[in-house]
Fold N-acyl-D-amino-acid deacylase.
Amino acid sequence: MRNLKSKRLGFVSLVAVLLANPALASTLITGATVYDGSGAAGRQASVRVDGDRIVAVGKLRPRKGEGVIAGDGLVLAPGFIDAHSHHDRGDYADRSMPLLLAQGVTTIVIGQDGESAGAFAELAGKFAQRPAAINVASYTGHGHLRDVVMGKDYKRTATAAEVATMQGLLAADIEAGSLGLSTGLEYDPGIYSAHEELLSLARTAAAGGGRYISHMRNEDVTFDAALDELLDLGEKTGIPVQVSHMKLGLVDRWGGAKAVLAKLDAARARGIKVTADVYPYEYWQSTLTVLFPKRDFTDLAAARYALQHLTTPEGMLLGFYAPDPSLVGKTIAQVAAARGEDPAVTYLSLIQVAEAWKLANPDKGRAEAVIGTAMDPRDVADFIAWDHSVICSDGMIGSRHPRGAGAFAKILRLYVRDQKRLTLAQAIHKMTAQTAEQLGIAGRGLIRKGFSADLVLFDPDAVTDNATVEAPGAMAQGVAMVMVNGVVVADKSGAMASYPGRFLRRGVQ
């Protein structure tokens, strides 16, 4: 961009003026190429913000006493929405959310994989007392419902009475504003649920206008059966169904994304409202136990199968290990070599020690986490390019996985600028209006009059992810300004101590 340095210096000084004069009646953003989130091409326009709303878009002149942000040479877009996030873990320990703001993310969607930390109204009230810089929307976790109703006696099918109680809790959450029901069917306690239990809960969510999002029962060996289960829920209840962090995690299935997408397109043609979210990495982060659907952690054959077909010993890197933190950052291959063991034996041993640690420390939370390299980059790109997929990080603060600090910047760098799999307009649409529409988030995701003023100003030629497995917290670059609910929360110098974020209710702006 020509004269970008001088323009940015002017931009930064204007943001400083705005921060020093919070009583200014309105703010006008001028000179930027506006991508409004609809998928339309960018156009030159000015955007006026008054209070927490966008009040005008077009050829606008500054009003007397109005703050002006010069966005010359930059792109102005709606703030990005992370469709699947765990950045709330640690109770928003860093409320400024610098890793998210550096990527232009203004809203995260939590309560994923069947996890939620309490009833929706309780979580919303807690957030209102101590808000963060970004907005939060939430699903109700199926695992949370099972925890409340079944407690530690969860390794079985729920009774009809227990399912009815779960339905009551879910209905209350939907009424309070939850986006719908999330499941984590590869994890405890959701792995023990029957399909009929899910059907009952999906009907409850659908009756309240909610949605269903799922970490399916399997993402590798029995992927097809897991996907069929999700589609069956959508077909029988009419509820919109979304595949969480869609992937093919089986080496034998690499290159098969197009066949999966053809199946999803056929399901949509039958009237099933199926969508997906995807993160732009070939490796996942989960538990060591996730590759053992039968939960037999003494099964050497299962361990060997996992390390040959689902990943490799070199591709399983310990991101967290409470029993022995010195192992963090090492692969199963490296630990096995140091011990002089078969990697499969090491794998089982690491699980067994972690499970024992959890029993001995029931109040200390998770015991381990692993980053597994298991996807083909061609499949990841195909899933991202699908018309009905949106973008997520599946990330968190403090993780060894770089997705929490880099996913959205990586989309703009790799799939837009480098590979040209998406146009800039398409990528922005996926990260804004399409996500809002698929998840039921009202009044956000578009630069339109009356919409909430969640905005990001960035340089499309410079926006870049810097996070890696070795440096997972490395900040993205190229974002010049982020606004949440009409308040500037970050500029080129980074995040500010400003917390205008809101806990969003489904369908309510």
Q: What stands out?
A: The radius of gyration is 23 Å. Confidence is low (pLDDT under 50) at residues 1-14, 19-23.
